[in-house]
Design brief:
mainly beta; 3 helices; two-stranded antiparallel sheet; about 10% helix; ten-stranded mixed sheet; OB fold (Dihydrolipoamide Acetyltransferase, E2P); single chain
């Protein structure tokens, strides 16, 4: 199939959804997923690579438009743009760059479960991640265990607030919703 034809087919909304139409995170532990490279995603163009994990490193400062935009590379040195949706509270404003850099400093190592590659409207291929539950991060670029992005220290500090609970004055964590 010619690239122009495949672009027409895959420029719509992301399809990493369950059969009922709800976007969902992979339930498989990372150990149960098969490692894949960016080039290895080519046969999965326009659909999620279920059962796979893509290990990448952030190589440029992120920015936020609708999604958080990042330039990442895999262990083979192949670079690609990645759009991370639904990762920060939707306040109608862009997250300030200093805050994004605290969560995603250059050199951050990420693991993307069930990676999804598509053609952007620009005609260039890119990764799209719709569910934050499919993103694991190695905090501070170290060799520590990968943790879910939503549970990383900087993410929790910047995007989760303490709200006073009703029972015995206990504090509970909730996501910002404005």
């Amino acid at each position: 199939m010619a690239q122009a034809e495949s672009q027409k087919m895959y420029t719509g909304v992301a399809t990493n959804e369950d059969p009922n139409g709800a976007t969902s995170a992979s339930r498989k532990p990372i150990e149960a997923l098969k490692r894949i490279s960016i080039h290895g995603l080519e046969p999965f163009l326009g659909r999620p690579a279920y059962g796979h994990v893509l290990l990448i490193t952030l190589i440029h400062a992120p920015c936020q438009q609708v999604a958080i935009q990042m330039l990442v590379e895999d262990w083979e040195g192949t670079a690609i743009n990645m759009s991370l949706y639904n990762a920060v509270p939707n306040t109608g404003k862009c997250t300030p760059l200093p805050d994004l850099l605290k969560v995603f400093p250059v050199g951050t190592r990420l693991a993307i479960k069930d990676p999804y590659i598509k053609f952007y409207t620009s005609g260039m291929p890119g990764l799209r991640v719709d569910h934050i539950g499919n993103v694991l991060v190695r905090e501070n670029g170290g060799d520590r265990e990968l943790v879910p992005l939503k549970e990383s220290k900087e993410y929790m500090r910047l995007f989760v607030k303490k709200e006073r609970g009703k029972d015995a004055g206990l504090a509970k964590l909730t996501e910002f919703k404005e």
